[in-house]
Amino acid sequence: MNFELTEEQLMIQKAARDFAQNECLPGVIERDEQQKFPGEQISKLADLGFLGMMVDEQYGGAGMDTISYVLAMEEISKVDASVSVCMSVNNSLVCYGLQAFGSEEQKQNYLKPLAQGKKNGELYIGAFMLSEPEAGSDATSQRTTAEDKGDHYLLNGTKNWITNGGTASVYLVMAQTDVSKGSKGINTFIVEKNWPGVTVAAKENKLGIRGSDTHTVMFTDVKVPKENRIGADGFGFSFAMKTLAGGRIGIASQALGIAAGAYELAKEYAKTRKAFGTEIMNHQAIAFKLADMHMKIEAARLLCLKAAWEKDQHQDYTISSSMAKLYASETAMWTAIEAVQVHGGYGYVKEYHVERLMRDAKITQIYEGTSEVQRIVISRGILK
Ligand code: CAA
Known about the structure:
Number of strands: 11
CATH superfamily of the largest domain: Butyryl-CoA Dehydrogenase, subunit A, domain 3
Number of helices: 11
CATH class of the largest domain: Mainly Alpha
Helix content: 40-55%
Distance between the termini: 28 Å
CATH architecture of the largest domain: Up-down Bundle
CATH topology of the largest domain: Butyryl-CoA Dehydrogenase, subunit A, domain 3
Bound molecules: acetoacetyl-coenzyme A
Structural class: alpha+beta
Strand order of the largest sheet: 4-5-9-8
């Protein structure tokens, strides 16, 4: 067993840390307040190769491992989780799904520009569309339909809470093609945003990750070419589950970063803020909080890295990614609340960042499978 990172992994971690400090930190409070999509930051991430980190170089990716992806996600999430969720969705849900299960033609047409994050010099990212008004955790209850019309499918339905919904050029859409077959009657389709019949509703006004671009997207008689179905007929739900297992490593790393960011701010504050004649770190009430934060974050980091390692070793990482996601997101929420407490009144105002991290932490317990869904996946996995 070796806990040391390679030189390349350390280099990527440093590049991500520098990027977060130099490019994400300036303006992060204003972007949160104004719900401004971090377009410039995402464009620079694309130039760094961070939007297709694990995609093979032959398909325009950076050819890095999942460990590097976890390290980069943590560093960027310490500073701006609105940037990192966009990065996570494009890397894990869109690029990974296409690389693992797409046809050669789909890889040439879509994966290449998505992995580069650019097409003809313009931002080119993807979105993953599983959730619906009545199908969140209960994901097999898809109401969106895709009717087989011979040479194409006709897509109708509504997708909710879609990250990158307004900025993405390409959507991976799950839809029911045969209700009688249940989850085996679901397919995933590659849909372009500018096709006739696609409507993007207003951006959601959210509690946290307010810069990220979250929308409802409607499909009305959208013609999807047959060749844009991913995999064999009926593979769509399995595609969603397999892809989400990797996505959960991304969100786990995001949660880890939020927790670590809140902890670092709390620790620095505790070293300088004085109360009752001494720096507050000298009071056990504060020191013990910091000790618990440090321990939980380290445990979350190890779970994230273990899941990433299993993925890189081509092992089954379904349970590990759910454990990493569950534990890291619970740690992020707890740590961020405690970091606000350590800051006292200062923690409740925006300049000190921890209140934003607290709001951002909450979504990590919800998206890409709630904490309750992770417990379903883990318990079914260990009890089968
Ligand atoms: N790999 C392959 N196949 C899988 C699988 C996996 N990991 N997990 C399940 N399946 C298969 C099952 O084997 C089953 O097939 P059979 O019928 O042949 O046995 C089929 O899929 C249905 O599975 P279940 O019977 O287990 O389905 P269920 O209704 O009990 O639900 C669930 C299982 C785990 C709760 C699932 O619905 C789930 O993960 N829900 C949460 C959905 C989710 O994470 N949504 C996130 C939206 S995306 C997002 O948030 C992105 C963003 O923008 C940030």
